[in-house]
Amino acid sequence: MAYTRSVIITGGTVNLGYEAALVIARKHPDWLVVLCSRSDTKQAALAINKTLRQKNTTYLPLDLSDSASIRAFASQWTENKNPPIQALLLNAALQFPAPGKMVTTKDGIEATFGITHAGHALLFHLLCPCLAQSARVVVTSSGVHDPSLTTGMPVPVYTSADDLAHPPPALAEGDGRLHYCNAKLANVLWTYALHARLAQRVPDRAITVTAMDPGLMPGTGLAREYPPVLKFLWNYILPRLRWLMNPLLGNNVHSAADSGASLARLAVSDDVAGVSGKYFEGKKERDSSQDSYDVEKQDDLWNWSVKWSAQNEEEVKRFEAFA
After folding, report:
1. Other C-beta atoms lying within 10 Å of the C-beta of residue 292
2. What is the per-residue pLDDT across 97-156, written as a single tens digit (0 to 9) for each?
3. pTM for the structure as a whole
4. Is residue 200 exposed (0-12), middle (13-18) or buried (19+ Cβ within 10 Å)?
5. Which in 109, 139, 197, 241 has the greatest CB count within 10 A?
6. Rounded distance, CA 83 to CA 56, Å?
7. In the chain, what are the domain boundaries?
8. Tell me: domain 5-321, CATH 3.30.565.10, correct?
């Protein structure tokens, strides 16, 4: 079958990404839906195809902690001449919560920030020429980026992007969960920075970008690096208590299927066509944190991300021009 469009979903083999892929593949059997992660041990793409009795979902390996893997993925994508990318869902994330045990990527930056933000930024820049007219970029953020919300997580602290990539001792040796909160703030800052530059530099392409908080989703794989007791609580106890937790957390506790449907809506639904530079909590548009609207922080993160992503000055110019 000749597919008319492509959809790429990072972290698409499990939980939120998988559920979003299922919705999109069902709604658009004429699109190629690509699940990306380091591995597909549960054969997620095959499962979606069997469930839908279709063949439009596939898996491609991608390690967001390794810039060489990201570049190889983008190169292969271009060489294969796949259909234009209609939706790019930058969804993958990981936590390393142990205090004083900072993990780094193969490129030598703090791993939560590297996987959740930096790897995604590089992937976007490399695939930008492959985006379709009116393509949508959707970034999975989190309410933990906003200290005005009750999340039980540390308050994010953004001093500079370089500090997130190469944390000073006080941050590197502190609560590992703070890296996750900071990375999720970076997701929103980058969303707004990208929106402003797309509108200024390539308005004719009509590419949109939005960020979404999927809410708390007990039972998903986000806690796989947690200690055994907390992992058991997350995987087996809290999913049974969503009804009790929701009133306490502003009705923002969901199953992966519910949040996956919200993520798929931003990627493909007509009712949000043309919406850009906005932040959503599930299906509801809302304001993000006060810090996320700080243009100086947005510019600092953007400039660092382009400099880190580019191999040379030629790539810097190309990335800044969205060419």
Report:
1. 25
2. 777 789 999 999 999 999 999 999 999 999 999 999 999 999 999 999 999 987 888 999
3. 0.91
4. exposed
5. 139
6. 12
7. 5-321
8. no
